[in-house]
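ok so I'm stuck.
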Amino acid sequence: MKHYNWPLFIFGILICLLGLLGIFLPILPTTPFLILGAFFFSKSNPKFYYYLIHHPRFGKNLFNWFEFGIINQKAKKMSVGFISASYLIVLWGKNPWTIKVGVFLILVAVICFILKRPSTRPTTILILGHGKVGSRIAQELISNKLMGTVKIYRTTRSDSSPSDQGHIFFDLNDKKSWDHLPFVDFTFWTLPANNSPHTLEFWHLKKHLLGKTIGIGTTSQYLPSKQETWIDENYTHIDTSHKRRQIENQMVKEGAIWGICPGLYDESSHPSKWLQFEKVHPTNFINLVHRQDCARALIHLALYSPLGEVYHLSDGRPFLWSDLSKYFVEKKLIDQKIYDQFMDKQKEAPKVLKKGKISNRKLMSLQDFTFKHSLVEDLS
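replied:
not stuck anymore, here's the structure
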């Protein structure tokens, strides 16, 4: 049996019961009692502590207090009203004036403390699946202040990462780690490539913590015909056999927003280095987006998109690999030998058919989003 601090645990239970009475008795403030109860649980029984701060109704105010020291305006008014009413009882009672003055000074100090606490918190961001796109999102939010002042939490699978730097241990396959997540305004989520059987279970249990959720998917789900086809978000020839696709579709139906990313590139991962890959073929199309633009687009969706929408994050400039590789030779990014070897692949059918050209009209029409990068312009 686990060792708990039973006196503190029992005291926490009693304090929380007083707080719950406040739901039915307006003269009792609920939140202050629950904050005190959560404090005692944090010292005695973490399971009850996490239950309280993740509660769909009460959890957000408790989290805001423990994380930011915030008391919202409604709670301030109720607390001040309750304290004032309490003092009237002391004032009208048959108490010596010294007690009345002493209690008055103490309650004034308490009211001053409550009123001086901040009432608003910074915009809170959770990055689930902290890969290169997640790093870019964090950079854009911090450097360009696209959401003003932010507090960013990043998940990691290492439980040794410092929590004071915003790193949170989280693993979909470890349900105990789900308790570590904060209440946030926005979540950017890259689902694991190797799908976890617990993804939807986690989503249904914890989505009230995640705020507006923006998922990150890939264009590999599309199965275009042999014809050169422009693909928009309503394209129906999709590979739905993968469990991840089914999960993404279910989450969109339940209010998540999904950004579909094509080939992601930047200075560390340039398309000129991709010619060696088996799936790359001269007769196929490549759709691209720079990682910085992808991060900017995802933040744009968080700010402006209605819930339950899907967007293509392509820069809208598809290339035939045969044309692009020739351009790489002209810019001296590859030598002639590599180009000739690559073009010899035309003698064989492509391993994977990539004939689709990804349309980004829906994204471009959302509050006039613009791209900063284009592969050809960046090389010019």
